[in-house]
Amino acid sequence: MKPILPSAVLILGCIAVASAQAPKPRSSDFFARDAEERPAKPRASEFFSRGDAPAPAISALGADGLVAEGVRYVSGAMTLTAPRIEVRGTSLTREDVARLLDPAAPGDLRERLAAMKAREIVVPDLAITLGSAVASLKDLRLSDVGDGRIGAVVVGPGSVALGEGATPARAAFARFETAGVDADHLLAPFLPHPADDASALKAAFVGAALDGIALTSPDGDVVRIARVVGRDARSRRTAAGLGATFDRIAASLDKEADAGASARGLAAAADLLGAFQVGSLEAVGLDYADPHGTTGRIARIGLAAAAGAPGSVRLDGFETAGPDLTARVASVAVEDVSLRSLIDGMAAAAATGSRVGPAEARRFVPQVGAIRLGRIEVAKSGAKDGSKDGSKDGTTGGEGAGAAAFALDGLELVTSDLVEGVPTRLRFAMRDLSVPAAFVSGQDSSGQLAALGYTAVATSVRADLAWSEASRQLAVHEIAVEGGGMGTAKLRAVVGNVSRDLFGRDPEAATRAALGATAQSLDLDIQDRGLLDRVLAMQARQRGVAAEDVRIEYAAYARLGIPQMLGSMPGATELGQAVARFITRPGQLRLGVKPLQPAGLSAAEVAAAEDPATLLGRIAVTATTE
Question: pTM for this structure?
Fold first, then answer.
């Protein structure tokens, strides 16, 4: 019936903070893993000293219950007050309760919690004061308490005030509930216990939900969250104990920390990251407002991860509006997220006992399989979204066209096949990035886009690259850029003799691998969708001549000038003729470039070439039009 026992799960953070208040011993002195690491095993009184608080009055409650009235506990900066606590359906006697309340009695918090057995524990009012923080919990109910487990916990409403002054920060909630709580396991990292308790991840609770959350800052910022739900939380004890783990991390961040302290801190951080896992976490109905008129909303944020498998994070329905701009993001998804590469990289670097350099830090990157963004819109507040008025080719627009700063239909980045933390397969797609005239005119000081008749620029980009260790080739399957009302350019290429060293941690080896790589082929397809005719028309207007005269002039220049510029390069004449045909009748122009030597053209050869003519003599070009 000790008040801390039935509320242990809810106030565990307060307990940890209070027990580490200066000038007390370091947290590692309390939480050290082995007996020889701490000066003496702390008694329960070192955590929960009652000070001069009077003993509560204990009396019977029905046939199988007990009630304690006037409960007040003081522990350092923390004070807990409960006018009444009811324990129903229990076999505990008054003497048992007296022992549990006695700080000098043997047994730590885990042992005392294991001794608690009740069908239900009810705390109508619980006040917690920790420094300048004051918390109030109403109607706290714990059911099926026994053997260090709690069947369910329900509390609410509750509130916390943080800080002093007339307008402290405040947090409040309507209801909190959790089920299947292994309180003994939750407390294990905070208390002295046998080292063999450090084991695999174990379920801490089955599920928990927090409803009606409201957070208010001293400046008047308000955040409201309709509901937060978490399921299948798992944890384990860190190798050194939680307190010592934090001590080692903190020591490694000191500017004067030596290499040994840095390595110990890195190992502790890796251990800590691997000690916690959540099956799923979801928050819905997030709203934000500040006194300056800025508001925001997120329909949903969710995190999901199967045990031992990569997880995902997703945000849906983000909106924000302020005095100047409004923004909307349909969705953000980060998929196949894993901290395993980060944890393993940190542990491996710590094992060397030396400081971490840039090469090792490359491995401290979490693995991310894909990032996907839904439609994004940004507009001036109160202005009409011009993306709905303009056509996709960016050539027309009614009233309000160009009001949006930009709009993006979607973006996708997919990576895989990591080597030393670097992805060797990459796919990227950006769909219809539209920048209206109001923005473009401010960036295009020359006025060329306006002269061409464009009121907006709509661009799409695609890329697909992959490295094969078996063939030692880096294949650029596609890099494509498309402009609405302009045209499309698609590039394909093959780079040979690409070794694994290119992606390794050794900078010198990576440089040698890059210099040894050879360009084996390059293909470029250009599809005109109106840009060339606009360029010719603009030139004609500026020179006061007919557009067809400019076309004939440009075609002749391509037919004669390109071979002259390229000199003896094989295919130069063919290229000039193909470009001339493309200008005369815009459509599709296909170019192919290959080195004359079968092994390809290396980066080292390019760097060593004395003049462009030397390189042009080593490649051949093919060109066709459709």
Answer: 0.77
